[in-house]
Design goal:
CATH superfamily of the largest domain: Pseudouridine synthase
Structural class: alpha+beta
Helix content: 10-25%
Number of strands: 12
Largest sheet: 10 strands, mixed
Number of domains: 2
Number of helices: 4
Shape: globular
Strand content: 25-35%
Radius of gyration: 17 Å
CATH class of the largest domain: Alpha Beta
CATH architecture of the largest domain: 2-Layer Sandwich
Distance between the termini: 20 Å
């Protein structure tokens, strides 16, 4: 595996019950195995060594750390997939970005400091795995953001993010699109912003959903290490 939040890390389970799991993926881990023998070690394969019935429901980028939801039966996997499709699973991220975003970088917010980015995304096939903003052929993609803190000394800003859709690289590309790439981003940031951190400073830190089996609300959180 590549470097994690703090070097090699064991599998961390934030929530476990008979129906589902919530695991904390370190940065550098794949969510599912990739192509070739060197990419078979992944969060899903490690989870299945401990919970043989674990099934993937959604993914995080390899460079992104944080909370990942897994089902423990095909039926629960289907119910959770439907909940994601209906936007009933609320995910919050934190990121450190270059510069100081202003409200005009996105549409007006809801009065609580939230602002939106609405930019359709599509695969950039000649430069895979990169994605691109494509107003003509891209899929609708929306991200909410609000500022948490600004560091004038480093010219960076900490943001809270809520993706309303789940496109590949959505948060990374949307923030680059408004002129504020995520620090440590090897794909979309300029060389200076990429070099300011040893990893992508993006973490899925909170997850909220109604448990499909019990009907109870689950609200889970994981500390942000950067």
């Amino acid at each position: 595996m590549a470097a994690t939040d703090a070097g090699p890390a064991p599998l961390c389970c934030v929530h476990e019950d008979d129906d589902l799991l919530v695991l904390d993926k370190p940065a550098g881990w794949l969510c599912v195995p990739g192509r070739g023998p060197l990419k078979q070690d992944a969060l899903s394969t490690r989870a299945q060594q401990r919970w043989p019935d674990a099934l993937i429901v959604h993914r995080l980028d390899q460079a992104t750390s944080g909370l990942v939801l897994m089902a423990r039966s095909p039926g629960m996997q289907r119910l959770l997939s439907i909940a994601f499709a209906r936007r009933e699973v609320v995910k919050h991220y934190e990121a450190v970005v270059h510069g100081l975003p202003h409200a005009q970088a996105g549409a007006d917010g809801d009065g609580d400091g939230w602002h939106s980015i609405d930019a359709p995304l599509a695969a950039d096939w000649p430069r895979r795995p990169r994605q691109k903003v494509d107003p003509l052929n891209g899929k609708p993609s929306q991200t909410l953001w609000r500022m948490l803190a600004h560091d004038g000394a480093s010219a960076t800003t900490r943001l809270e993010l809520q993706p309303l859709t789940g496109r590949t690289h959505q948060l990374r590309l949307h923030l680059t699109h408004i002129g504020h790439p995520i620090v440590g981003d090897a794909l979309y940031a300029d060389a200076a912003t990429h070099g300011c951190a040893p990893r992508l400073l993006l973490r899925a830190c909170r997850l909220r959903l109604r448990h499909p089996g019990t009907g109870a609300w689950l609200q889970l959180a994981s500390p942000v290490p950067f």
